[in-house]
Structure prediction request, 172 residues.
Amino acid sequence: MKRSNLVPWLIVLLLLAIFIYRELNRKIPVSGERVKEHVISMKEAEGYTKAFAEAKVALSRQLQNPAYLDSNFNMPQCELFNRDAIAAILNKPGATGLRVYLGLNPKKEVCFVLVPVTDKGKDITERLAMDYNTWIPGITSARAGYPDDAEAIERGQRCPHMCDLESPLTNP
Prediction:
């Protein structure tokens, strides 16, 4: 192969490698100033989780039937949601944040329900888990609208079953 034919191929390969590297290391853009509105120290977070655990015990003591709280409001210490579930919320067009609701599932477990939120503080109640393999450029899918195809994120992995046992937040 002549040298003049090799150079364009090397350039194409280099550009392809750069593109692949960039895609594999892509991060969600973050505004440091907006993050500061929500950041607390880990010491403070540990204090919050410890205060909650203590308040739960105190509430249980106040009830005539202490087992009532666990049998009717089985509260997790925390729930874990994977990156894809959070990305589905943040990638929703118009989403500028997420809201976390407390819910009670059929097993009488307190759970966290996550929904995308607009910059005006309105819940986005639309489909989240779309089939990414059937997307056709330029064609939008028809939507039945709320409530038939509207979705929220739940089914986090509950603690104490899925916990970081070394974290000071799970061992108040």
Summary: The two ends are 68 Å apart (CA to CA). DSSP finds five helices and four strands in the chain. The CA atoms of residues 11 and 91 lie 33 Å apart. The beta strands are 78-80, 97-104, 110-117, 157-159.
